Amino acid sequence: MPFHQDERLPDGALPLPGDAVTPDLPDGDLWRRLNALYDDVAGEVARRIDAGERPTVVSGDCLMALPVLAGAQRAGADPSVIWFDAHGDAHTPASSTSGYVGGMALRFALGEAPRALGLDLRPLPEERVTLVDARDLDPAEAEYLASAAIRRTTVAEAAAPEGPVVLHVDLDVIDAGELPGLLFPVSGGPSRDEVVAAVRRVLDSGQVVAFDVACPWHPGQDNDNRARLLAEITG
Question: Region labeled Disordered — which residues (predicted)?
Answer without folding.
Answer: 1-21
